[in-house]
Amino acid sequence: MPAPGISMKLSGGDFDSECCMTDIQAYAATERGSDLAPFAYDPGPLDDDHVEIDVTACGLCHSDVSMLDNEWGITQYPLVPGHEAIGRITACGANVSHLKPGQMVGVGWSAESCLTCGQCLSGHHQRCGTGKPTIRGRHGGFADRMRVQAVWAIPLPDGIDARSAGPLFCGGITVFSPFLDYKILPTDRVGVIGIGGLGHLAVQFARAWGCEVTAFTGSMDKTEELKGLGAHKIVNSRDDSALKALRGQYDVIISTVNVNLAWHRYISALAPKGRLVHVGMITEPMAVPGGALVAGQKQVGGSDTGSPAVVAKMLEFCARHDIRPVTEYFKFADVNAAVAHLKSGKARYRIVLEP
Q: Which of 82, 158, 166, 172 could cross-link to 59 by cystine, CB 3.0-4.6 Å?
């Protein structure tokens, strides 16, 4: 069923230029496994605390694919994906005072939060119990326009490239938040597991943070590229002996993968009080031996995204250190080819869709 208040209009071909001007033109999947097709919907009156954004670019994230395929069992169809959107504000609700039409903003995984619960009031808006993700029960950025609560439309600071910035709003904040959540120090030795859409950004953040950075990858052909991104060391994650040789070295290891690995090897590589931090969505139970945690008071934890303030802080950090996603570009009209490219594992490292 369409989301509440949304009328569904499907059409063949590209965006339907003859549709009513109030309709948002988008690409949607109508069921699990279906291709994305042109889709129009009437968003209704603009809420007082929302803004409308003219989308100029939108990242294609693996989470979009997970939602398209209903891997997490929470998808509502028709689904307009897109939670790494960049665009210009075209309208502001009556109660919006901190933004104005014409501003360039970005939108990530979260689109609404209550602003009054304990999580919101303590600065953890992304954990709001009644908050709404951008693409769950509402429509995202694979569209000419989109709407979100104004607090989640984050202005782009000077020095941020708007064309490539979209992936920062999901992939970027996902690997930036652990540096704050786990109080990572510039003197720490940090490892990053999985050098893909998340990992290549984590390496850049860790290097700019001042850390000694090790990239764990099964693709040793990326060695020179990873050095260019800031890795001091590159370790073959498929080489068991190489992992054994790292015993007790790392203060933090950030895992970006969504599959189970030999976690005891990475826990062994942690220094006393070290942390293995997961940001990848692993759906199966993880095998973590308790004894490996007890010896050295080690921890296994997770990290989600970030509040609006933390997203803004991340953008400032990226501008200061010239941190950018490595991107490939597709037109919105080629969205299904872009999804297939991502599913094939060939994307290096983030995909951005453009009108």
A: 166
